[in-house]
Amino acid sequence: MERAATKKCSSEQIREAAVWLALLRAPERTTELEAGFQRWLSENAAHRHAFETVSMAWEGLGALAPSAPPKLSRWQRAGYRQGFLYSAAAVAALVLVAVLGVFLYLQQMGVSTGVGEQRLLVLEDGSRVYLNTDTRVVVDYDRERRLVTLKRGEALFEVAKHGPQWPFRVRADDRTITALGTSFLVRHETRQLAVTLIEGSITVARTDAANVTSTKASESSDAGAGPVTMAAGERLIAESNGIAVIDHPPVEKITAWRNGRVNLDQVTLAAAATEMNRYSQTRLVVQSPRAAAIEITGIFRAGDTLNFANAVANTYGLQVAVDGDVITLLGVPGSDDDANARQ
To answer: pLDDT by residue (tens digit) across 187-235?
Structure first.
């Protein structure tokens, strides 16, 4: 993936990008206008990021009914920068108000995804945040910091590189992850927080005195209340009781959701049902405790709960009952020997 350039967009560049967006959405869009836009876009890397930011903000206004912009006066190349800014001021006003409204919303209310929805959020500095299902983040930028608070759910962060004077931080639960330029995944659940470093280096600071132990054989560590520096491929799992462990899961498995997949590796059917339920309004229920304890391994399509249930039922001799938006796996697996053979 091509990394975004790291130059920060100025307020003037945001305003210009908003005007360009208004002009390009006008009914009389011309080839001359498009050529001028391409010239402006190529003048400065920050122009491209400003236009991405404004476009994302506009697309986020699904509840706003767009009105047709007024007819524009003829636009000319000579002195285009100042001339078109003033001639298009009326057209851009609605876009600017919309963009500023979205920025305020991002800082105060945040941006969310629904169940089964995924979304890409391009931040002001060029960083990208991929939001998984049922996720909410709040963005807070100023001259001193770049801060994203993960309220719930799961997000993959690709951080644009800037100097240590402008650190990028993610807050989730009672932990703060600090990065300068890297890629990492954070999953925030009710009783557990997981931070996985894909590349680069991050530190995870804590406000409690939780112990951190490694799952490597014959190796353990006690980091006390100090920050934990992670290496690529490591995952820190912090439980609600304050205990944390570090392991090394296959990154491709925990990022399978980026491709619309759920990758299950020797998890109980109960845990598998919980994971599948994250991606669908249809709820999967396992009736029997014996069935719930079955170990499941495989790659499944996110949101395809019925096919998942049928596959499990066919493998373990269960029955599938569908009642509206609830799918129930009924019955118990065969004998222990049969169950082991199927696994």
So the answer is: 999 888 999 999 999 999 875 444 444 444 333 344 334 688 999 999 9
Are 17 and 100 members of one domain? yes
Distance of CA 106 to the CA centre of its chain: 14
Greatest CA span in the chain, whole angstroms?
A: 83
**pTM here?**
0.65
Asked whether residue 212 is assigned to any structural domain, the reply reads yes
For the stretch 16-57, pLDDT in tens is 777 777 777 766 677 777 878 888 888 878 888 778 877 776
User: Distance between CA 216 and CA 238 in Å, rounded?
Assistant: 17
How many domains does the structure of the chain reveal?
3
The vertex-174 CA angle with 178 and 122, nearest 5°, equals: 45
**Residue 55 within any structural domain of the chain:** yes
Residues 6 or more apart whose CB falls under 8 angstroms from that of 168 comprise 125, 127, 146, 148, 157, 159, 160, 162, 178, 179, 180, 181
Task: Show the domain range for 69.
Answer: 11-108
Same domain, 241 and 276: no
Eight-state DSSP code of residue 257: G
User: Which of 207, 233, 252 is the endpoint of a domain?
Assistant: 252
